[in-house]
Amino acid sequence: MAITMSFGKGLLILLLTLVATLAISQAETVVVGGSEGWRYGYNYTDWALKHGPFFLNDTLVFRYPPPNDTVKPHSVYLLPNLYSFLTCDFKAATLVAPPNQGGGDGFSYTLSRVRPNYFASREGNGDDCTKGLMKFAAIPLYRPPFP
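Given the sequence above, the corresponding structure tokens read:
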């Protein structure tokens, strides 16, 4: 009887480990905006709705050119809550990618916790954010264990 219970517990632990490994190994890398990248005038809320859902441990890549004489700066902020996101209130926001970090391979942000992540650009006084464009929410879900 004790051997059967030990075997059952061992099998359960093995299965849970396998499921967790599969879920982590299936994490995806998603370029925010796709071929558009992170730029002014693009509706990222619509993009996120069309390209979601996002899952735990997925990585979002923000690509944007570094600022110069002809390119306005871009940035990526993480807003702390839904109210800040809806009103584009950056007072308690965290800068996660400054204007010079989006070039080349871009800036990567991994969705490592199951909680809402509110992203927005503050550049240009947050004009694109207040117009509802350069912002989106990513709320990662647990990935189903099997496709």
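The CA atoms of residues 95 and 127 lie 17 Å apart. Try to locate this feature in the token string yourself.
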